[in-house]
Amino acid sequence: MDAVSYIILIGSTLLIVSILTSYLALRIGTPLLLIFLGIGLLAGEDGIGKISFNDPQSAFLIGSMALAVILFESGFDTKLSSYKAAAWPAMTLATLGVAITTGVIGLAAHHLMNLPWAEALLVGAAVSSTDAAAVFFLLRVGGITLRDRVRSTLEIESGTNDPVAIMLTIILVEAATHGWASPWAVAAELSRAVVFGTALGLLGGWLLVTFINKANFETGLNPVVTLTFALFIFASTNMLGGSGYLAVYAAGLYAGNVKLRGALELRRFHAGLTWLSQIVMFVMLGLLATPHDFGAIALPALAIAFLLILVARPLAVWVCLLPFRFSANETSFIAWVGLRGAVSLLLALVPVLGGLENGQMVFNTAFIVVVVSLLLQGWTIGAMARGLKLIVPPRRGPVERVELELPGDADQELVTYTVHAKSPAARGQRLPRWARPSLVIRAGAVVPLHKVKPLQPGDHVYLFSAPSSLPLIDKLFGGSRALDQDDREFYGDLVLSPDATVGQIAEMYGLPLSLGNARLTLRDLLRNEFGGSCELGDRVRMGGVELIVRDMDDHGITSVGLALEPTGVDKRRTALFLDLLKKLRDWQVRQSFQRWKRREKRRNERRADSAIGSD
């Protein structure tokens, strides 16, 4: 009994210390995962705690369960709109990017550490996966607002590259222990894992949603149901030959994008559970590490860490994003935001569990790489985003939206706004009946509704609204971007109607004009330029000015910005990456332009032929 109490006391103490020190990390912007890892190291056998923990089997079991919980929450919190914006580039990074990173690092490990090819590639596979939780925590703490496409690419990549890296690691361990399989066998194994994982995950997500919606449990029981379903889907898919990690992510993705009872409470529960899982994983892996063994591999491991950050990750990102319309600065930022975390350490345990001769060396190398990544990249994400001019002005919409579960087909949300200083509401404009707040908080105190007039900047207003009314309410409480000098660099100097034609704008400002585009509206021009998937901040050069997507709603572009003196938001500001890739990208752009010119020429010829035929 005393031994059990002692273990519980030690475990809870480590968790409390981790939570308390996270407050300091929030204040100074330190990567939280680095704090948790450091606590584990300090408490371990080489630290001041002198706790001896040498049980990789238990560590892998606990870590796998924690990772399943994290991946379910990652999918549950990802909107399908993110996939619409960035599915193909993110999936390319999660597959081809992982393969390129594994190959480059494997080649380096083979020569720097004299490892056999299978074990050298295991080092690459272990560190090929990025850590989403660390990236987005740092973005939030630093007040960094990125364009949706960049953020969605990073989010989807980090959620989907974990299963790919895990499958690759398992295959390489099999190769190291039983010899290399044929390429066809490897391809068949990967295909089966992906197909089974996706199909069983979506099926499990559907069963989970149907069960919760039909069973009508007491609200407090729903989180227990989702947790047990997530673990069941993870384990059963693994037993059937699929990827349990991919399955649990797919199940969360399905459940998070359909109507689900108690969705708000479930999101809060799984967000807290994910934090607990992150803390447990990193503290436990810190306890498992033995820093006194790091000296023998410190130099090659540091070389591999810097090679990963400065060569392998940038090379993989630039190659994978060549077919997609990312600016050089966006590509550079995605390349830099490749933090390694718990998944890398968990994968590095697989060679140890497989009994490989150099398994411990693989784990120690991965540990050093993770620490360097968190130290170097984790502290510089904000500075990198600002230096590359990727910060988007904060949106003026609701601070928070809460979906309400009302009887019947009632479709209402509780929304919260912070009144903007230059908004119509703050200037005393009379609010329509459907936009009047139900609650106003001013300086931390509730103000009676009959005393709030006029609303003041900084007031927090709460009101019930139909989702269709939110764009109008945004303008009342959030104000217009045209009023903000600070937004001009990103959104332009003037506001144009998206229904104006290219010919009208060209004539008004003396701009060069392609006759094929003259009749197009600005909305259609931007839509054609970006394949119908525009987002705020997308920009098209037109002579000496730029047309910018300024405002959007559910139906498309509602206003277009005109930058009279382009500010170079997309101008390349970094020389971190290979010139060869820049040349390849420029060649691709030239080829695309030439194809466009040929299409325009053929289209004009057909129009001319049609005109002659009609005469």
UniProtKB/TrEMBL annotation:
**Which organism does this record belong to?**
Azospirillum doebereinerae
Sample GO molecular function, one term: antiporter activity
Query: What is the membrane topology listed in the Swiss-Prot or TrEMBL record?
Result: Multi-pass membrane protein
The molecule here is called Potassium/proton antiporter
Which cellular components does GO assign to this protein?
Answer: plasma membrane
The secretion signal range is none
Which intervals hold domain Transporter-associated?
A: 487-566
- InterPro entries from the xrefs? Cation/H_exchanger_TM, Na+/solute_symporter_sf, Transptr-assoc_dom
- Note whether Membrane occurs among the keywords: yes
**Key words, A-Z:** Antiport, Cell membrane, Ion transport, Membrane, Transmembrane, Transmembrane helix, Transport
Report any one BP term from Gene Ontology: proton transmembrane transport
Where does the record say this protein resides?
Cell membrane
Q: Where are the transmembrane segments?
A: 6-26, 33-53, 59-76, 88-109, 121-142, 163-181, 193-212, 219-236, 272-291, 297-321, 333-356, 362-385
An example of a Pfam family matching this protein is CorC_HlyC
